[in-house]
Amino acid sequence: MENTSQDIRQLNEKIHQASAFVDLLNIELGKVIVGQRYMVERLLIGLLAQGHVLLEGVPGLAKTLSIKSLSSAINAKFSRIQFTPDLLPADVVGTMIYNQQKNEFVVRRGPIFANFILADEINRAPAKVQSALLEAMQEKQVTIGDTTFKLEEPFLVLATQNPIEQEGTYTLPEAQVDRFMLKVVIGYPTKEEERHIIRQNLNPDGMTAINPVINPADIVEARKLVRQVYMDEKIERYILDIVFATRHPEDYKLQKLKPLISYGGSPRASISLAWAAKSYAFMKRRGYVIPEDVRSICFDVMRHRVGLTYEAEAENVTSENILSEILNAVEVP
Amino acid sequence: MRRTTVKLIILCVLLGYVLCPFRLLAQSPFEVKARTDTDRIRIGEQLKLELTADLDLNSMPGASLKVVFPNLPDSFAHWEVVDRTGLDTLGQTNGEKHFKQTLTLTSFDSGHWEIPPLKFEVYSTRTDGSYDSMFTQPIGIDVGTVTVDTTKAFKPIKSVRTVDWAWLDYWPYMAAGAGLVIVLFALWWFLLRKRKKKEPAPEPVSLEPVYDRTIRLLKELDTEKVWQQGNVKEYYSRLTDILRTYFEEQFGIAALEQTTAELLQNIKPVTILNQQRDKLRSLLSLADLAKFAKLQPSPEEHVDSMHKAMEIVEWTKPAARPAEGQGLPAPANGSGNHTKQ
């Protein structure tokens, strides 16, 4: 059904009211997380857009603290799975165990049965464990024995990868990385932020507790509104231009990128970009998407979906470099 | 004496009986011959062996005969067959039919060798298939070796003889080379032409100054009454595109590839443009709402947006004029209209 200007105005007002919790969440998380606003914002985008987030950053950047705090603020269940080479799929999804007293097998649910999952160092576990997790992420359900269990909504997986240790790791295949809506690269806090972190950690009263500000049901409702955010045809074309420029850069006067790209974004990239742009607009308390929304989340949606050639790697060209070139070449509507 | 005469008569009678078959043979309707052109050759030298067969058809009226010449192998009894002609029918004269075949023979063994009797066969095709056969007379041939004068000294081995270079000897190679060059040239020319076709034609360079063109385009947009016809989105798209193109060409800001927020940020270094920042922000924000949120601004806002655009361009005119004088890049095309619908 075609949206009229009146519909969009009403939707805008509705979203303006409904998205007020975003500010509340930011305030609450700000009590314990110093800096890392970018990461927290991306986590919320993933949460609202029903996508999962792959985090890349060195240890000690408050990755665990962020997602734990987020789950506390939303009053949701949180699980942390440390991925190791000897981890088994059953350790993630659960298994059947024999109950001697009852003389029957009963299901023991794994840590995946939570709203927020932190899959720490996902690339340390072998492929079968990774695929078990990724399957659960995609299907939002797991099967143990003969029984299939639906995972609770909201369900958000935050997987982390350590970029500095590659020995003894199982790199995620491109097809599985593509299942993550966002790949967020986080850096060190600033000097001032780190000074706050020291003070906060050495506080004699201990860390401030996070109070729940919303419920998981509110997130589910917010997701419905995110879906309704108006996206104009011009924005859709802009998204497609960006994704197609990663596949056929020569069509966008970017012939020099052709030898650097081995493969471009998949249709899932276009979908994710549209979803994430809508979520971003929602978080900015708007009922419509503007080009800024697309550009703001473009790097996080696209960086793991652009394959680099050996030539690019030899020249130290990153996917971010390529995306910058593309964004500077594709006309904004 | 009488007894002697009787003995002679008896002897003659006996001789007559003995010679009777030869007499009959001489009267045979089928006669074959083998004849060589020489009876002496040097080793390796060739000789011609002519085989002929004559049939007397008068003696067998109504008969239909077929002659089969001897089928010599390529090599036989010190002889090699070098060449053989086909069977030649010489024609029919006075009821006689003549056949001929010539073989070229050679021998590489010295000595006196005999070409053996060769067997001819004649079939009667109208009868029961019975045949008669006849043989040629054997022919002796002397095959001599080359005489070597042993009294003389050995002669040295002759050096390699050089052949005079002649154009005619190499013409096939030259023709092939020339053909290859022509084919390669044609291929190169074809590819060059194809590539030239692919290359887009250079866009015509407009001599109209950027400022003048922008003002003209804004006036055209105003007179076209786009928003009055209900095309609000198109109106704001064209309006902002004209302005962005102006900023890009006049101030070197990649405005067409920037969002509103980025553009407002990037005009800061351009003082004269930055002075109109609020006006520009108001215009671009309203345009964004019209373009992306289906906002329907009031007619006053449409008019006001046009005035603001004109004012921004007019305000930057002093900067635009010297910049044009310094030879800033001319617009990509004459219209400068980047309407995106």
UniProtKB/TrEMBL annotation, chain A:
<feature type="domain" description="ChlI/MoxR AAA lid">
    <location>
        <begin position="259"/>
        <end position="326"/>
    </location>
</feature>
<dbReference type="Pfam" id="PF17863">
    <property type="entry name" value="AAA_lid_2"/>
</dbReference>
<protein>
    <submittedName>
        <fullName>MoxR family ATPase</fullName>
    </submittedName>
</protein>
<feature type="domain" description="ATPase AAA-3">
    <location>
        <begin position="52"/>
        <end position="182"/>
    </location>
</feature>
<dbReference type="InterPro" id="IPR011703">
    <property type="entry name" value="ATPase_AAA-3"/>
</dbReference>
<dbReference type="InterPro" id="IPR041628">
    <property type="entry name" value="ChlI/MoxR_AAA_lid"/>
</dbReference>
<comment type="similarity">
    <text>Belongs to the MoxR family.</text>
</comment>
<dbReference type="InterPro" id="IPR050764">
    <property type="entry name" value="CbbQ/NirQ/NorQ/GpvN"/>
</dbReference>
<keyword id="KW-0067">ATP-binding</keyword>
<dbReference type="InterPro" id="IPR027417">
    <property type="entry name" value="P-loop_NTPase"/>
</dbReference>
<dbReference type="GO" id="GO:0005524">
    <property type="term" value="F:ATP binding"/>
</dbReference>
<dbReference type="GO" id="GO:0016887">
    <property type="term" value="F:ATP hydrolysis activity"/>
</dbReference>
<keyword id="KW-0547">Nucleotide-binding</keyword>
<dbReference type="Pfam" id="PF07726">
    <property type="entry name" value="AAA_3"/>
</dbReference>
Automatic annotation (TrEMBL), chain B:
<keyword id="KW-1133">Transmembrane helix</keyword>
<feature type="transmembrane region" description="Helical">
    <location>
        <begin position="170"/>
        <end position="192"/>
    </location>
</feature>
<protein>
    <recommendedName>
        <fullName>Oxygen tolerance protein BatD</fullName>
    </recommendedName>
</protein>
<keyword id="KW-0472">Membrane</keyword>
<keyword id="KW-0812">Transmembrane</keyword>
<feature type="region of interest" description="Disordered">
    <location>
        <begin position="318"/>
        <end position="341"/>
    </location>
</feature>
